[in-house]
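Hey Z.,

So I finally got round to the manganese (III) ion thing we talked about over coffee. Here's the setup:
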Amino acid sequence: MNAYFNEGWLAMLILAPLVGMAIVANAQAPGKPPAAAEGAPAFTLPALPYAQDALEPHISARTLSVHHGKHHQAYVDNLNKLVAGTPMADLPLEEIIRRTAGKPDQTGLFNNAAQVWNHTFFWNSMQPNGGGAPTGKLAERINASFGGFDAFKTAFSEAAMTQFGSGWAWLVQEGDTLKIVKTSNADTPLAHGQTALLTCDVWEHAYYLDYQNRRKDFVQAFLDHLANWDFAASQLK
Ligand code: MN3
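And the result:
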């Protein structure tokens, strides 16, 4: 064996696997997605914007584990089952909500899509060491719409307390004014042409492990220690 022959063999040994890989990659290429992408769900559970224990002691890691990991995940899973193989699978979540709102034959789809959206919005409506008061343009709008931040807090708490059964309390923008609204079950401001700014989930699963029947204490903790006013301000139009 001369030196050239040896080098040639060496080159083939190195190149052969690379050539093989290129052939495999090419076989999948034109217009045919890998099998994993074909069966991929249309929607995935967004990660929490903070650690699971970051809102303690106001909301426990145990509550967030169940609320985000089980309830929110279940809405995502149900939504994926309902849109699988339909044109809805290619639509943005907001569009599915708008198209199915108020349609009696689409209730299941609306409920799960809206609950996926509402929960993601709720996680963003909170932050560790939140609460306090908004500033800037949002503070001005709140003062103009409610006569001051304390009046806003009283009205928001009242809405959250008087939402009978499961639902949500919201600060929304409608045109130039801000309003407090409460929605039942999965209903959402998106379905009513309003821009959501901040929300508090008042389904019992949101607070029962930590507060049992004391919804008022949960809402108070939300306003005093968790509300993310920077996020709310970022949603203003
Ligand atoms: Mn919930």
